[in-house]
Amino acid sequence: MSDAPFHAHIYYSAEQRDAADRLRSSFTNDPQILFVGGLTDRGVGPHPIPQYEIHFLGSARDHVIASIEASGLRALVHPLTDDDLADHTDLGHWIGEPIELDVSVLDPPGVNQGMDRFGKSDF
């Protein structure tokens, strides 16, 4: 599964924005990261608080988790399968305190529109 697609949603508060931007910059220069989204200073999609998204392959998962843990920020790291709900719940790995997501906006199983934007765009 080293070539399986993954996302990480990295969450931040107003006070943590500078730390989030520093981590984001480190991922921008990291060849293991396929895509780094922009800081989104509001809730969007299922994410009720500010966040940004990175895309990477499963082979970089341990590296990504270690980098996020070292930053002190919280995040949801999940695979990108054809089941958006499972990706964001059962298959997700939380770093730090989990937050309640609005799962009502996620794609139904088998219709994961996120796959089309893997490595291309964020919210």
H and E string: EHEEHEHE
Overall CATH architecture: 2-Layer Sandwich
Q: Order of strands across the widest beta sheet?
A: 2-3-1-4-5
The whole-angstrom Rg is 13 Å
- Which runs of at least 5 residues are low in confidence (pLDDT < 50)? none
- End-to-end separation in angstroms reads 26 Å
CATH superfamily: DOPA-like domains
Structural class: alpha+beta
CATH C-level label? Alpha Beta
Number of helices: 3
Give the overall silhouette.
Answer: globular
* Main beta-sheet strand count, sense and barrel state: 5 strands, antiparallel
In a few lines, what is going on in this structure?
The protein is an alpha+beta fold.
Account of the protein in words:
- The protein contains three helices and five strands.
- The chain has one domain: DOPA-like domains (Alpha-Beta Plaits, 2-Layer Sandwich), CATH 3.30.70.
- The protein is of the alpha+beta class.
- It is globular.
- The chain has helices at residues 17-28, 61-71, 84-88, and strands at residues 5-11, 33-36, 51-57, 74-79, 93-95.
- It has a five-stranded antiparallel β-sheet, with helices on one face.
Task: Pick out its properties.
123 residues; 23% helix; five-stranded antiparallel beta sheet; Alpha-Beta Plaits; 3 helices; alpha+beta
